[in-house]
Design brief:
With about 160 residues, the chain is of the alpha/beta class. It has a single domain, classed as Trna Endonuclease, Chain: A, domain 1. The protein contains five helices and seven strands, in the order αβαββααβαβββ. The strands form two sheets. Strands 1-2-3-4-7 form a five-stranded mixed β-sheet, sandwiched between helices. Strands 5-6 form a two-stranded antiparallel sheet. A hairpin with a 2-residue loop joins β5 and β6. α3 runs parallel beside α5.
Length: about 160
């Protein structure tokens, strides 16, 4: 885990209704060993909000090109129905709960991210079942920007 993953995790946990599983393994096919069962990813954090009954697949990046993040989101987009089944099967996320990707990046990468999200949400011309990711700037998760014991959940998407 890099430094910003810890900062984002604390930001998420500051909402008392949100519970976080860091480096959560999401494997598409059931199996004892994700390395042999097929496609899988280690999501930076799976955040579950019990108050709003929703889950978030959180990814954190400050890479200038956002290449790794875009690759990850594209893979999720292509596999979204199977990914949802895996979250229910392996993590207990109820099927009725909405699941959203939640991206944390530096604000200066916003225009690049917005363009890349257009490509991610339409794979080979077909609209994805994956919802548009929620975006929060890394600058906004600094600990002095929110109450550490009662951060509201009503964050607005920025992109």
């Amino acid at each position: 885990m890099d430094y910003f993953q810890g900062v984002v995790t604390e930001y998420l946990r500051a909402n008392r209704a949100t519970f976080v599983n860091t480096e959560c393994c999401i494997q598409l096919n059931a199996g004892a060993n994700p390395d042999t069962s097929g496609p899988h990813w280690y999501c930076d954090a799976l955040a579950v909000n019990l108050q709003t009954s929703e889950a978030f697949l959180c990814e954190i990046s400050y890479a200038k090109t956002l290449g790794g993040l875009t690759t990850r989101l594209t893979a999720w987009s292509k596999s979204w129905p199977l990914l949802r089944i895996a979250l229910e099967r392996d993590c207990g996320v109820p099927q009725a709960w909405p699941v959203h990707p939640w991206i944390f990046v530096p604000e200066k990468l916003g225009p690049r991210l917005e363009q890349q999200l257009l490509n991610v949400l339409s794979v080979e011309g077909v609209p994805s079942q994956m919802p548009k990711p929620k975006v929060t700037w890394l600058e906004d998760v600094a600990p002095w920007k929110y109450s550490s014991y009662n951060r509201p959940h009503a964050d607005e998407d920025v992109v």
